[in-house]
Design brief:
It contains nine helices and 14 strands. By secondary structure, it is α/β, with parallel strands linked by helices. The structure holds zinc ion (2 copies).
Amino acid sequence: MPTHMVEKRIGDIRIVGYSLAGEETVIGAPELNICFDIGRAPREVISLDHLCITHGHPDHTAGLHYYFTQRWFIGNEPGTGAGTAYLPEHLLKPMQDLMEVWSRIEGRYTKANFVVATPDVDIKLRRDLILRPFEVNHGVPALGYSAIEVRNKLKPEFAEKTGPELVELKKKGIQIEYRLEVPLITYCGDTAAGDFLDRDHVRNSKIILLECTFFDSEHVTRARAGNHIHVRDLPDIMPRLRNQHIVLIHVTRRTFLRDAKRQLQEVLKPADLERTSFLMDRGGNSRRRSEPHGSDY
Ligand SMILES: [Zn+2]
Ligand SMILES: [Zn+2]
């Protein structure tokens, strides 16, 4: 069955996603069992259990009810199948109301598992994987999320000890391990540049999914008004980021991808160009653009 979704491997993480400003943004990382925003709920991400909602704009949330109903159809009902949507606090009540209104339309109630994501309060997904929500800068309350692998490592001073010696130390209550956090992937949602880019778990994340909505010089005002990033902001942002892979998302429909690429080449240093790509670059010379109307959210 044909799909509009892009599938690619970035570093050692497989991404299945789609992102165009004002139309749809949804990015799944199947091996991590995480989906960032839900867009229009494409079938490729329905089975992912952890859904991270950043803000209320419809290009990011329109498919939320559909996600839960589809899970019910395939037997992943939340609560039994562990499907959960994490979301900013102000969206909890409206989303619960939305589910309620749909139950009146549909004549059947679909269970939905919502958990409020509080900035800087980690959410444990697995023994070795956490989500860290953080505030971004989008003019409306909005969050980004880092997926962070947590490893327990032996402290270097105990490196020479044998297994039985380590067991003895543990028995004595000595802390022989330390906690190492490895940020795997960070999704910033919709946002203008902001202090969050200087956070260690953001700038050291192996992959950062960063919006860059506007590219044309006459779109600077539009970027400022909507709290979005313009390609001209990138030269200031790049030196702050240590990410191995910077993946640009949420490009406006007003700009051809090939023109966006050209603009990017003009403003970035070669080393930064090398680590930067467009999620929606399917390879080849994409001329895709919808009609230049509508809003960019
Ligand atoms: Zn958007
Ligand atoms: Zn938005």
